[in-house]
Amino acid sequence: MKTSLPAKAVPVGLVLLAAAGTFALTMGARQSMGLFLGTLNSSTGLGLASISLAFAFGQLWWGLTQPVAGLVADRIGTGRVLVLGVLLVAIGTALVPHMHTTAGLIFAIGVLAAGGAGMAGPSVLMAATTRLVPPERRGMATGIVNAGGSFGQFVFAPIAQGVTAAAGWMASLYTLGVITLLALPAAWVLRGHSALPAAAAGAAPAVREKAGVVIRRALADPSYRLLCAGFFVCGFHVAFIATHLPGVVASCGLPPSVGAWSLAVIGLFNIVGSLAMGWAIGFQHGRWRMKSLLSLVYAARAVAVLVFMLLPKTPAVMLGFAAIIGFTYLSTVPPTAGLVARFFGPANMATLFGIVMLAHQLGGFLGAWLGGKAFELTGSYDWMWYADIVLAVGAALIHLPIREQRVAPPTMATVIGE
What we know:
Blueprint: H1 12-31, H2 37-44, H3 48-76, H4 78-95, H5 102-119, H6 122-132, H7 138-167, H8 169-180, H9 186-189, H10 211-219, H11 222-251, H12 256-282, H13 290-310, H14 315-329, H15 333-344, H16 349-378, H17 382-398, H18 412-417
Helix pairs in contact: 1-6, 1-7, 1-8, 3-4, 3-5, 3-6, 3-16, 4-5, 4-8, 6-7, 6-16, 7-8, 7-12, 7-15, 11-12, 11-16, 11-17, 12-14, 12-15, 13-14, 13-15, 13-17, 15-16
């Protein structure tokens, strides 16, 4: 079995380019799929709820793949996982135009594209970055990687809209699939797996725990469970907006270009939010508590949605709302990943952050699916916005009891003692 490269073997800038670039390409393709929801509905005649189910399954499967992909990456290496993931994203995206049933769309969007994006997603990329970047630079590094996903959304949404206008929606999906393949070289840069950290002088050596033991120890920690619950809410919010914001724009009588640019603006301002959050959690080794920053982000979302509901729906209001939401959109990822690393260290980071991402995507499944159901039943998205406000307030509150301290792993001495 190959061991991971030491951090000094790969320049930090190259690590960040590879990880952020991969996230940009896979996230950009996924987050642009909402632009095709209406077209798929018209083309297949399946109904908005059925197509939303395919998108919702994709949210769920993206989450389900992350703990497994993280476990594999922790044990046998990041490179192979990333190659397979990128290939699946490209294949699944290109197959979407050829699927005319709900099961077919679930297979292309939900299993292939979303599963591949999960393999080449945050749990594996954040863990590789944590492994290859010095501890004092990890906060900003995770912010940069997260900003990569936002940059992908900012770039892909206008590209998808432009290619659709010029050559049709099928050509647009083919284009997105091909562009995703540009992430393949990053697998070589990020190859390797998490090695056991060296013991401090005079301390008992750490031992490699079995995956089941690691997971049980994490789930027994109340702070880790609260973190998962908060990220569930984040997934509900992000998936609803990514899937249905173009539909929200259409229901307000605004042109499709406003929907595409709204998604792009979310991506642009999330770059700012992600970098700002990465700086905040890394500033002077974390002057601000990560749990407090998370509470602030969720509270800001609740206020933003409430104000949006009270304002008239004009292009300027829609783009302004997208900017505010974008700033908070995925800025939750760096402090959430930072807390997982603080609780349990880097050795099992991909596995344990993958479980947190699974909670995120369970919320994402509900956000994507219920958005379509709510619109079919009521003719509007209002009840989804109400639910989002309540959940965001709840998420802001449940982060406050989190204890930001290391959960000590077993040592060889404790194992022998047992």
